[in-house]
Amino acid sequence: MHLLSKDLTDRGHRPGQRWFRLVGSHAEEAVFLALAGFLFLVATNTQTGWLYVVSALLAGVLVAGFLGPRTTLRGLQVRRRMPAPATQGDQVDVEMEVFNPGSSDRALVLVEQDLPDTLPGQPRTRRFLIEHLPAGSSVRVDCPVPASLRGYHRLPPVRLKSATPLGLFPAQRSVPDDSGPLVVYPSPLSLAELSAPSRTARQAHQQRTSNRVGTSEDFLGIRPYSAGEDTRFIHWPATARTGQVMVREFRGRSGPGMAVLIETWAEARAGSGADSNLESAISAAAALAERARRQGLPLTQICEWAGQVHVSRASGEGALDFLARVQAPGRLSRLEVLEAAAGRAPADAHLLLLLLAPLQDLHGLSHLLERRGGLSVVFFPGSGLPEDQQDCQQSVQVLASAGVHSRIHLPGMRPTPASSGGASR
Amino acid sequence: MTPSPSWHPPSGAPPPKAPRGCLGGWFELLKRPKQPEDSIPLRVGVGFSVGIAILAALHQMEWPHFGWTVLALTLAGSSFSWYRRTHSNWLLKVLLSILMLVVLLNFLVGLAANPYDPRFPLAELLLWLLTMHSFDLPARKDLKYSMLVGIILISFGAVLSSGLGYGAYLAAFLAAGLVVMHLFWRSEAREGAQTIPVPPEEAARPRFATGVAGMLTRTAGVMLLAGLVAFALMPRYESLRLRSLPVSWSMRLTLPRIARGEIVNPSYPGQMSRGLPNLTFAPENYAGFNPIVDLNLRGTLSDELIMQVRTSRWSYYRGLAFLDYDGRYWSLSKEEPEKVTSRTPPITLPLRRADPRAERLVQVFYVQRELPNVIFAPFQPYQVFFPSEELYVDQALGLRAPFPLEEGMIYSVIGLTRPLPAEELKKLPPIEDFPRLARSASTHLTERVPQRVRDLAFRLTAPYPSPYEKALALTLHLQNHYAYQSPPPAYPADAEVSDYFLFESRTGHCEQFATALVVMARSLGMPARYVTGYLPGTFNPFTGFYEVRGSQAHAWAEIYLPGFGWMAFDPTPTGNGEPTPGLQGPPRQRWMLGALLDYLKKLVPEARRVAATRALAQARSRWGEWIGVLKNAGIPTPAAVAFLLLIPLQIPLWAGLVSLWRARRSGRWNPLTRSLDRAARTLTALLREPARNPRENLQHLYHQMERLLQRAGWERPAQKTAREFAASVREQRDWPEVEPILEGFEKARYGELDPSPEDQDRVQEALRRLRHRLRSDASGPSRIPCAEEEAQPDDAD
Predict the structure, then answer these.
(1) Sorting pLDDT into bands at 50, 70 and 90, what band is A15?
(2) Among A48, A71, A126, A161, the residue to mutate for chain B (most B Cβ within 10 A)
(3) B308: part of which helix (H) or strand (E)?
(4) What per-residue confidence (pLDDT) applies to A45?
(5) CB–CB of B544 and A104 under 8 A?
(6) Cβ separation of B182 and A45 shorter than 8 Å?
(7) Are B377 and B415 in contact (CB under 8 A)?
(8) How far is CA B380 from CA B308, B352, B360, B515, in A?
(9) Which of A8, A95, A151, A176 is an S-S bond match for A81, by CB 3.0 to 4.6 Å?
(10) Hey, which residues does B484 pair with through a beta bridge?
């Protein structure tokens, strides 16, 4: 029926098409109008007063049918609450509360919530029918949304629809609200699949490059502030001098920590949706963040999107939140990103690069290779094609010859939900 | 609030797609089931509404035999389609298609039997279609089609109906229809959506006003209101453009014949003979429909409904025209009437002159009672759709049926009318140019008519050259100078009726008026004849019929205008003051509401209606005077009208708008309830005049004095006491009334004892005198009292 047909918001290609669609979606009302007109003509011809009455009453039905739905929807308020951040693959419930502040009861109000374009799922519109909404009371509607993709998803506004009481001239209204986005964290890869660079390799790097093993109060230098950091360590003179917020860097208590770069290079992305190599990389980063949280290791995450390099030192949920915010594709060139990563990562943290494409050559990356904390690389080739794997194998060999440990994560290893539970519900 | 259950996709598999292809595909189409409609209340509602429509139609068809079959089958069909709603029922559909052909054939047969009245066969077709369709109602769309046919059926019943009682069926169908529409919507809303159930505590507390029943009642109210507005704005075009001219064709076979076109009046059987009759008055049928009319017959006709007429414009219904007059009796022409035949309707009358400029006037007559064998028709009749194969037409174009008219007979007449504006009619040549007319039977005047009648006629018409104006002058004179009384006083048996009427009695009813007009016209040499028939009747806007009652039998005159033809004139005073030559009018009412009001006006007694009309005319003339005054001042009419209308309306209009705006700005507004509150408070304040105690009363009177003085120019400054103020007033004006009022005020305000009634009387009397004095003393104070303080005593003024 016309209520369930698609909206009239798209424009018709030809001028008449829009009117045609308008009439077509209001077929019932058109029939009433035509009938009223026809009966009026018959009444004029036969001079039967009762037919005039019937014709007038049909017109009256149209008027009453037009006013009713508008009255039904008038003043209704909808408050929408997003659930706590979910992990990819969960089914979350978006809570909506429909409140009737008026003095009359409302009946048969449809509440519709569209899934955002960024989230796949069927059906695209979830529909709920509130049969009776007494005056001054509210009804809670829980709309299940499949959180199948990580990210910040902006849900379209809730729609209220009604055609009470006669089913003619349905009225609809979008209820804007500021309930914020739905945050879906990536689901971490199971740790068995992803082996972080072994402790021995890291320690080897440390011993080679570091000679400043000390207490946690060791002062390492001043670097720019990045999101999620404690504001106690802001170095104000440096901030005043450079105009950018600078913080003092100390070595973390339990060790030098880890820095992870997630590459979002546009030309290296392959696959779509949850199966793309970028998503695999992000899932890997999520697993690493989880492990860092459990072991208490300080974690730095670096990623570039929208032409800007973002760095996060948050841990736990903040790290997952950072990963959720990653928006592919990146705009900067690969070299720029790698340089920025080298610059922004703490000097003696172990830098782990999650790359989406093989590294053809290593020139220009010398400061990466000579980091104090060490470097390792994981490749996420896009497809399972042998060519991609071969290129990645070559890169692994090249890196190995430079003394960098690397491995390839093959597609088809699907991320399984983290057994210890990711974000809290 | 209870937590809602988890969401699940809507139930019901989507209907499978129909495969493409030719015949096989079509067969698949027939077989596939549609999305079934499961709601029982909806089906019951639809069945109930359709049942009302069926009953309404059957009632108008007067309960034919197949009606009960139709009802029972519809009921059975609805249940059957409910049980079988999930099956494809293709065999049933094939069967129904065959049956539909059978029903169509039946309709065509019925139409052939009575080709001029397709209403009943059509109604039967609709009923059978509805019945058969009710067996195949799996989906909601089918139920909607069923309701559509129901609406058509009830509209059809409205066409067949002939009274106010049909409104009951309409109201019942409407109420049921609203409920059904709501159920349709309810069922549609549930589709594809998960239902959030009503919280149990709310479900247990039903409230009419805020629940569904209340909502539907309010919707019905809005619908009625909007419908009333639509009805009021509907124009009423008085024209039958598409011609369906019903005739009760089957009646022609059953009625006994009257030979040779004689007139037989069932209320006067056997009383007519070739000689002079001795009639006793019968109230059921007008004595004017007889071969001989006795003008001295007195009595009151009954008010029974004689016939109902559907016509494209109002007109008098012409029955018989009489030519021979002998002073007391009118008789029909002695010549044999001409017989006109036709095997199938219509019977076309031979007209001596077919006027190409004539307009058609269509009338359909529904006979309600036994009537004489006169075919009432507009003048001039051209084609008659009558249930017989022959008719008799006499020399004066009176139509006679071969049998008396029976109850339930329907016939139609198409007449030709050529309305000419008065200017054209005045240019017609005078009667003297046509000497042959003086010898015709319709100009012959009996010698019994005395000279003074002829002199009167001559004197009245002398100033006018043209026959139209002469006829009009005679008509006007009769209308304005003679009184109508029904039944009229008895005339002496040997008196000549027109003479006695014009000079002795001066009162009569339509017969005497018409006779006088015919006699006077004939005396001037104008051919004239005496016509009997019926008045147009009362238009009933509900049914669209003009209802003609027995008491509306009437007599008038027809006068021949050479160069034009016969024209009817009605000299009987009607209260309008204006004659209507031709006795056929243009459409009277433009709007349906106007027609309705006209009909309702008839319910108001005559005297009150006349008084109201007069008052309205006075108000209208007064209004016109005011407009004229303003127009003389140079203000054009629309501005003057606006000025006059809006001046008194401005104040409440602006006050209302300002208060609304303020209320809206303050954020909380519910103007209706607040204004009702305020109105209630004002009303209670007005009604409940609080009894003031004596102290308050005296103070109140003192304040009234202050107000009077203020209006006269003395304002009491705030720092002055009452006594000081009174002193300053008394310096200016030595008014003795001020002192007692002041004393009364002080006693009321500061005194220990309550003021006595005598005090109050005294103060009131003083106040009254003060008011009177102030009115006559127009001059104010010579100096402003406030400035008195600032003015230096030794300043020169």
Answers:
(1) low
(2) A48
(3) strand B305-311
(4) 78
(5) no
(6) no
(7) yes
(8) 20, 11, 10, 21
(9) A95
(10) B508
Q: Where are the alpha helices (DSSP H) in B415-526?
A: 422-426, 451-461, 467-481, 497-499, 510-523
At A378 the three-state DSSP class reads strand
Candidate from B9, B192, B231 with C-beta closest to A56: B231
Calculate how close chain B gets to A1, using CA atoms only, in Å.
Answer: 8
Task: Give which of A32, A60, A42 is closest to B156, Cα–Cα.
Answer: A42
Residue B582 gets the label, from left (phi > 0), alpha (psi -120 to 50) or beta, of left
Name every chain B residue with its beta carbon within 8 A of the beta carbon of A57. Answer: 174, 223-224, 227
Tens-place pLDDT, residues A263-311: 888 777 677 777 778 888 888 888 888 888 887 888 888 888 888 888 8
Instruction: Supply the mean pLDDT for chain A.
Output: 78
B499: tokens are: 């003479």
Label residue A31 by pLDDT band (50, 70, 90).
very high
Q: Evaluate if residue A216 carries a pLDDT over 90.
A: no
Query: Chain B 344-403, CB below 8 Å of chain A: which residues?
Result: none
Q: Is the pLDDT reported for residue A36 higher than 80? A: yes
Collapsing DSSP states into helix, strand and coil, what is residue B283? coil
Residue pointed to by tokens 């102030």: B774
Q: What is the distance between the alpha carbons of residues B335 and B465, in angstroms, rounded to a whole number?
A: 34
The pairing of beta strand B399-400 with beta strand B381-385: unpaired
What letter represents residue B431's amino acid? I
CB-nearest to A166 from B7, B182, B191 is B182
- Three-state DSSP state, A117: coil
A370 to chain B, minimum CA–CA distance in Å? 56
> Largest Cα–Cα distance in chain A?
110
DSSP secondary-structure letter at B199? P
Residue count (chain A): 425
The SS3 assignment for B557 reads strand
Single-letter amino acid code for the residue at B22:
C
Determine which helix (DSSP H) or strand (DSSP E) holds A245, and give its type and residue range. Answer: none
> Is there a cis peptide before residue B781, judged by omega within 30 degrees of 0?
no
Reported as a single tens digit per residue, the pLDDT across A344-373 is 888 788 888 888 888 777 777 777 777 777
What is the per-residue pLDDT across A49-98, written as a single tens digit (0 to 9) for each? 788 889 999 999 999 999 999 989 988 999 999 888 888 888 899 999 99
> Which helix or strand (DSSP H or E) is residue B464 part of?
none
* A128 to B215: CB separation less than 8 angstroms, yes or no: no
Chain A contact present for B674, CB below 8 A: no
Burial A210-224 (b: 16+ CB within 10 A, else e): beeeeeeeeebeebe
Of the partner residues B4, B7, B239, the one whose CB lies closest to the CB of residue A126: B7
Q: What angle do CA B384, B386, B392 make, to 5 degrees?
A: 70
E runs forming strands in A50-202: 77-81, 86-87, 90-99, 106-114, 125-133, 138-147, 151-153, 158-162, 171-175, 182-185
Give residue B286's identity as a one-letter amino acid code: Y
Name the average pLDDT for chain B. Answer: 79
Q: Does position A207 have pLDDT exceeding 80, yes or no?
A: no
Of the listed ranges B95-99, B285-289, B386-390, B792-796, the least confidently predicted one is B792-796
Look-up: residue for tokens 């419930």? A93
* Nearest-by-Cβ selection for A64 from B189, B226, B239: B226
Going by their DSSP bridges, the two strands A90-99 and A151-153 should be labelled as: unpaired
For B25-67, how does the pLDDT look when each residue is reduced to its tens digit (9 = 90+)?
A: 555 555 555 678 878 888 999 999 999 999 999 998 888 888 8
Mean pLDDT, residues B1-21 taken together:
44
**pLDDT at residue B661 is higher than 80:** no
Average pLDDT over residues B632-648: 66
- Nearest CB to A46 within list B7, B544, B595: B544
| DSSP codes of every residue in A308-336 | EEEEE---THHHHHHHHH--SPP-S-HHH
